[in-house]
Amino acid sequence: MPKIVDHDQYRKELLSQCLTIIADKGYAAITMRQIATGLGVSTGTLYHYFPSKENLFEQLVEYISYQDTSEATIAELKVFPTRAERIAAIFNYIVEQEDYFLHQTLMLIDFSRQKNREENELPRRKRTGYQNQKRASCSSLCNLRYSLP
């Protein structure tokens, strides 16, 4: 009899374990094979749920954003009657979850650096019109700033 798998739940389980794996090695340095090994699944299984590393990253950011702002998390704050108590509870939560937020921050910074590197490595002729326009706009703004009295 075939095994019945709740694919959505399994995807969430994989995502919940990815943050630490990606943050420890860095988005730019880690491969899908290394992520699969860290998760204890085959590379094929990982690609079944996430067609690319970038897709995995996007789903991971969506997943952790949802977790951080879920109704359950918000409801926990409503038990505190004053704004000051709610703020104190938020800071206590951040302190208790320091490693989680550190991993999240490191992963996002590394992803951003990688994307900037990739954009800068594109040959000029292959850049999209948007990228060329963005560069031209930035140059114009810099020239304008330095030409103002």
Quick structural overview:
The chain is mostly helical and 149 residues long. The chain has 8 helices and no strands.
Word description of this protein:
The chain is an all-alpha fold and 149 residues long. The protein has one domain (7-122): Tetracycline Repressor, domain 2, CATH 1.10.357.10. It is 77% helix and 0% strand. It contains 8 helices and no strands. The chain has helices at 7-25, 32-39, 43-49, 53-68, 71-78, 83-96, 98-121, 129-147. Helix 1 packs across helix 4 (53-68), helix 1 (7-25) packs across helix 7 and helix 2 crosses helix 3 (43-49). It is globular. Residues 140-149 have low confidence and may be disordered.
What's the structural blueprint in terms of helices and strands?
Elements lengths: L6 H19 L6 H8 L3 H7 L3 H16 L2 H8 L4 H14 L1 H24 L7 H19 L2
CATH class call = Mainly Alpha
| Number of helical elements | 8
Query: Could you say how many structural domains there are in total?
Result: 1
CATH architectural group: Orthogonal Bundle
Helix content: over 70%
Question: What is the CATH H-level superfamily?
Answer: Tetracycline Repressor, domain 2
**CATH topology title:** Tetracycline Repressor, domain 2
What's the total count of β strands?
Answer: 0
Distance between the termini: 79 Å
Properties at a glance:
disordered C terminus, 149 residues, Tetracycline Repressor, domain 2, mainly alpha
